Give the backbone structure.
Amino acid sequence: MSSFKWLRNALTAGLMSVLMLALIFPGAWASDKPDQRPLRLGLLPYLSTEKLVKTYAPLANYLERQLKRKVIITTAPGFKEYLKRANQGRYDVFFTAPHFAAYAETRYNHSRLARLARSLDGTIVVPADSTIKKISDLRGRVLSTPDRLAVITIQAEQLLAQNGLVPGRDVTIRYASSHNNAMKTVLDGLSDAAISLSALYDKMSPKLKSRLRVLAKTPPIPHAMFMASGKIDKQTCEAIRQSLLAFGESPQGKLFFKNTGFVNFIKISDENMNTVMRFVPALEGRLK
């Protein structure tokens, strides 16, 4: 094994160990001096824990240098638990779904920081040789989606309703543990169709794409957002905001955006929040 590969694997293992400690012992990083304790960066569990750590480690390292403060990556076992922890203030900064962000701001007084510059939309796929040609053809079929609380899951079920189909009655909804796994069910022949983030579909290899056909896309909305806990003071909040907005100018940021396709981090406008607020009632209904 080359020295570079050994170092990379060692760093990844170290980050995974820190993350597991943060998950198992969420109070282990507490300090009597809030400005000296590590900053807890929460990540929405839309990918596996390992992939989250690998993807966002460059951002955590960048924030450490900018803020001169240790940054601990942490997440949760699922969307519902993640939303609960975020609203309890267990993350100082959290990267979250747009409708989660609107819910956190309006219901729990958390502060907006930045959002992904690209729009968020979902892609519904079917096997390349499927007889399904339009949404109404999904009657009696199985549609796999990410977590029940995911905004594109809500959009997918709304799209079914707009085409005269009742989710759970006319179409069986199978909730997968991640966006990747939702797409995988179609490739494995376990579902007739699936919806996932368009960004994930776009990054699939040509070989895998050749086995799928795009059935439909959901309307674009503002993408995922970074929020700050209401417990964070205004000065720290502004420092984090400015660091996030400048991330794309750094070498780590340029590589991060190239690898993820997220383009950049930009300010969150009132219009952005108003757009995603319409999904909050559906979210609250699913939280009951």
Remarks:
- Residues 1-32 have pLDDT under 50 and may be disordered.
- The first helix runs from residue 3 to 24.
